[in-house]
Amino acid sequence: MKIIITYASAGAGHFKAAEAIAEYFKESRPDLEIKLIDALDYTSPYFKNSYIRGYNLLVNHATWAWAVAFYLTSFKPLLFFINPVHAAINRLNSGKLVNFLIKERPDFVISTHFLPSQITSALKKEHKIDAKLFTVITDFGVHPFWLAEDTDIYAVASDYTSRILNREGVGKDKIIVTGIPIEKKFLHEFNRMELSRKFGLDPDKFTVLIVTGSFGIGPIEQIADSLHKEAQVIAVCARNQKLYRRLNKKNYPELKVFGFVDNIQELMAASDVIITKPGGLTTSEVLAMELPPLFICAIPGQETVNAQYLYAEGIARAATGVEAIKDIILDYKHNPQKILAIKEKIRRIKRPFAAQELYRAVC
Fold first, then answer.
1. pLDDT band, very low/low/confident/very high, at 138 (cuts 50, 70, 90)
2. Class at the top of the CATH hierarchy for domain 2-181
3. Least enclosed by CB within 10 Å: which of 13, 27, 52, 277?
């Protein structure tokens, strides 16, 4: 059986979900022929660069423009005009991806981004390939671009996501509620005492983790300034080297500063709450770790929908200013029963075994 697992490298979440799927499938069935590809590697160089750089520019420096684009392309009266133009642009620039899929003739295409889903769906409709198409939606909401006519199965994050697809005319027989695929490292058992010693923390002190994605955006420094006398603070600066240097120079006794890390699951396990962005993958990882989230710096559109879903479930809170953030953190610190109540709510909705559920549906 040949399976192509594909994503688009606009944001880290699509890749991480695809990688988690590929890892589980390979471990479960070594006999499977699996290829993990970035769909953008099979597009024109200009298209790829524009796609990645444009996304990074908008979500990090012009979120108002991203919001306008997101909501305009979600506005149903405009989709009659937008969808054909969008499909034509994608097809015009994806000749190598089209040729690759026709040549490979996979049995299954599992896509964690709408671009390869749309291309695969078009090829199925034209009878150029006969693969089954599984589209894995990596947020709790559903932008119209995710909808591709010849998709066989949509794997979605929650019952809430399933209901959105139902309203868009997708039958229940085409939807499986799996959760969003995450790496298996988030599924381990953790010893907080040992991890606290590893990171130089006091396991009995209230600990706050701050991480806002690979660019280290948002008021991380101001939050650390505000909280370091009230709690142990772990600040993950990721690729933001200037922030990393500034925070290290402060020498706050209760502040631990990290750059780019590959053991975020351990930092989560050593913490009581997390201040973060509500990306689809991040949100699923937080739920798997049963860590109460406080959301900041949400990207308008997909991340605000993720946040709204968890607000409605009574799991997440939001704040727009440093003082408001501090008030919420102190509320959690002085009322530990609130954290216990949130953990219980998380247990009712979390779906940490998405890759396994998808494997069962395919194999």
1. very high
2. alpha beta
3. 27
